[in-house]
Amino acid sequence: MDKADAARFAGRRRAERAERGEADSFSAIVRSTHLPMIVTDPRRHDNPIVFANPAFLRMTGYERYEVTGRNCRFLQGPGTCPDAVARVREAIRAEQAIAIDLLNYRKDGSTFHNALHLNPVHAETGELQFFFAAQLDVTERYRLVREREAANTALHDALAVQTTLVHEIDHRVKNNLQMIAAMIVLQSQRIDDPATRASMMETLQRVEALSTVHRRLHQSESASRVDVAGLVRDLVADMIGASGRSDIRVALDLAPVLVHAEKSVALALLFNEIVTNILKHAFPAGRPGTIAIRVGLAEDLRIVVEDDGVGMPPADEPKGSFGQALMRTLARQLGARLAVESGPRSGTRVVVAMPASVGLPAPVDAPAG
Ligand SMILES: Nc1ncnc2c1ncn2[C@@H]1O[C@H](COP(=O)(O)OP(=O)(O)OP(=O)(O)O)[C@@H](O)[C@H]1O
Ligand SMILES: [Mg+2]
Fold first, then answer.
1. Which residue in 7, 12, 109, 303 could disulfide with 352, CB within 3.0 to 4.6 Å?
2. Which keywords describe this protein according to UniProt (predicted)?
3. Which of 98, 115, 137 marks a domain boundary?
4. Residue 275: nearest ligand to its CA?
């Protein structure tokens, strides 16, 4: 052997030793890993297990001699999904990899959810040599999913009960308000002083506006949100109806906006004051006209109420009316800016601009008001 041959021989021995070393460490890893693994031999009859690592034996409860030489189907049982088994069989037939969860049975008959990753191993020639299957007991994951689903169902049921209760409360509040309204009507019939009577009628109108809010809340799907368009439409129809004015037209341009229930009462009362003012002051007897109402949600939640009536008289000195005080309080509750634009004979325009967070866009498929 010359020097070059000796070097080549030494090199080959080193490569063999390295290969053997690699195989040894691979085998040590497979034996010590917590990941259950098996190898099956599709070239032998019925594709039997030819190697199972200790993690696989721990997971299934079998001894090595009980699994070696058998097809994996002994892990299946009555609860195993036939479709999943068919998919595994098809992957084996097509020599393709598959990742699938199967319900498997241990030796003691108990079940576990097995996340199976099956891979064909081909020789360099392309010939199928083995199937390598890594598996993982994912029973805990299934249990957590089931628990979460049960918790969701329980939460959903509790919410439905709560919604029903709140709806019931709104229904009762609405009935009580209607009773108060009826009492105001009866009481006002015994009052002769026209000013006191008119004042009681305004109180009646406010109580009815509250009643409308609670009817809307009772009808609303969520019990915690009110559709502003529906509320505005109901309020204005009630008020025009009660005024007996058939010569006042209403033009509505209402975007689908929801508001939280706790804001809806203040909003309805504020709207009631604005429209009451129009019906009281803008169209003196015989003067027909139009009330245009716009609701929109953009950088703010905005309600614009415009009339083409007589316009506000020049403000010589602040009157300090109850209506004004009420509107200021309601605007504060809503975090709203109130702006009134008017001049004699030019109609009046009232803008209520609330923070956008007061409203939220109604779902597109929500039934319009
Ligand atoms: N849309 C309107 N068109 C014409 N004038 C209006 C309009 N709204 C308000 N005004 C005028 O502004 C005044 C102040 O209105 P405000 O609501 O503060 O008081 P009020 O309606 O007279 O009394 P209250 O609301 O306490 O019953 C009214 O008296 C009226 O002259
Ligand atoms: Mg007023």
1. 303
2. Chromophore, Flavoprotein, FMN, Kinase, Transferase
3. 137
4. 1
